Amino acid sequence: MSVSIQQILDRAMELASSVGTDSHDSPIVDNAPTAEVLFPTALRRAATEIARSDRNEADILKRTYALTLVNGSITLPTSVIAECLDSSSIYSDDDSDIGQLSSYKPRYYDFLHPALEQLGYYTVRGANLEFREPDEESGEFDGALNLVAVGMPDIPSTLTASMTISDRVAEKTIENLAAMLRGEKAA
Questions:
Q1: Which of 28, 48, 123, 148 has its CA 20 to 30 A from that of 66?
Q2: Residue range 59-112, pLDDT digits in tens
């Protein structure tokens, strides 16, 4: 679906202001600047909720991120949805064993104390993605890897430019944004 941010904002403000009372008396009617600021958060929540509940939709939201690690670490790109890394994969263009023998570990302790030394592992610690090769200690890997993970759709720089997202992500974004404008969900 191709939709502009402005279309999503307009629909969310219409939905938010039409609950309960006369929509013309609602203070939300004049909340366009607030809606614009809340839009990325509403979109991220929608993408996260849908990716967690629908494997097919998660696959549609996946993107490939080219990473260059130094000492086994790199700052995770901000568009990666870290909450959905359990469905991610990692591979190297130079070494086919890295992807086949690497596993995501959500808990840092499990990353530091692997059950199988023959596997490589990756995790998120703070804002960093950390990687260890099979039979290696943490922090020894220098090189390029590709991370395939659920990511945020690209947000256009103008309100009227089109962005391509699924119907479900668009509708969930509108619902989230309307609830945020009404104060039902924290920003």
A1: 48
A2: 999 999 999 999 999 999 999 999 999 999 999 898 877 777 889 999 999 998
SS3 24: helix
In terms of residues, how long is the chain? 187
**Which token pair is 17?**
């202001």
Q: What is the rounded CA–CA span in Å between residue 101 and residue 93?
A: 14
pLDDT tens digits for range 152-162 = 999 999 999 99
Number of C-beta neighbours around residue 102 at 10 A:
21
CA distances from 54 to 101, 168, 170, 175 (A): 26, 11, 15, 18
Tell me the backbone φ, ψ of residue 148, rounded to 5 degrees: -105, 110
Gap between the terminal Cα atoms of the chain: 25
Sorted by sequence, the CB contacts under 8 Å of residue 32 that are 6+ apart come out as 9, 13
